């Protein structure tokens, strides 16, 4: 593949009904959406250089509402002009920009969605997915079929509310929530270092609210302007300022749990002094980088109650080599061991 995206000038579309028009696409354009993969297409449509949209529009809306809505469906493009005129007759130029790097993936998804109808049970489909994963990404493994935690619709709704468009953090967030609930019995304060938009803070505060700990506080530490400067230990994945979310956005996301939450905006470790007199039951460290991970461990370790929990989100990830290094060094020679969870998190149960 030589280019990431290509532009196709479209042939003249013909009218279907209402504002709707349709054009057959050339064979070298990757297939678009289908019933099984309704958002597969990455196509962007331009009318005389002005971008139209929204994409993935319902065909009924294209016909009834027009206004540039379009849908790249299989080998066809359903579209409407920006002003209701006929795209085949208004003399304007219509161009489709399509990512070609994802072409292979779109074709495989298209084939897979056809195969789905040939398989009768969920288990058969799961096995197919497992074989495909082994083929495509040989150094990774799928976990067990039929895990019941996927049935927790309340958790799913919270996860989706912070919408990252995938489920890659699903198991880690579940683990955060379970351990936060477990730590209520320890009876100390809670802290999170690295809050971003508040997804894990939301889950932690919800445990305090739902499992009978109205008196416990969750202290949130973040710059609210993204990561600090990575050091030479941190590899090349992260840049200063990545993962920035504003204090106002996070406050709004967590408004439901304002009784539990105390914000400490600033660079780690500057605001730790605010909680120097507290004892902690649960500390979630999720700052991606070595220095703030080290600062967080050093400050909170002295203040953990016996049985209290440290959970480091970044321990087992190739993108965060520095976080693992400092955590390994920090606990070397201490009584506690780091439990490397299959989620990639590093868990330590304080014994002091
Ligand atoms: C991966 S995000 C946290 C994700 C969050 N726990 C979640 O799961 O939704 C990392 C956060 O660490 C914060 N951060 C990184 N380095 C920091 C530092 N030195 N001081 C304060 N905040 C920092 C960033 O601003 C960012 O919000």
Question: Explain this structure to me?
Answer:
The protein contains 9 helices and 15 strands. The chain has helices at about 60-65, 105-115, 120-135, 155-160, 170-180, 200-210, 245-255, 290-300, 320-330; strands at about 5-10, 15, 20-25, 45, 50, 70-75, 75-80, 95-100, 190-195, 220, 260-265, 280-285, 305-310, 340, 345-350. It has a 7-stranded mixed beta sheet with strand order 11-10-9-12-13-15-14, with helices on both faces. Strands 1-8-4-5 form a 4-stranded antiparallel beta sheet, with no helix packed on it. Helix 5 packs parallel to helix 6 (about 200-210). The longest helix has 15 residues, at about 120-135. The radius of gyration is 25 Å and the shape is elongated. The N and C termini lie far apart (about 55 Å). The mean pLDDT is about 90. It binds S-adenosylmethionine. S-adenosylmethionine binds near residues 227, 286, 287 and 289.
Short key terms for the protein model shown above:
Rossmann fold; elongated; 15 strands; Immunoglobulin-like; four-stranded antiparallel sheet; 2 domains; alpha/beta; 352 residues
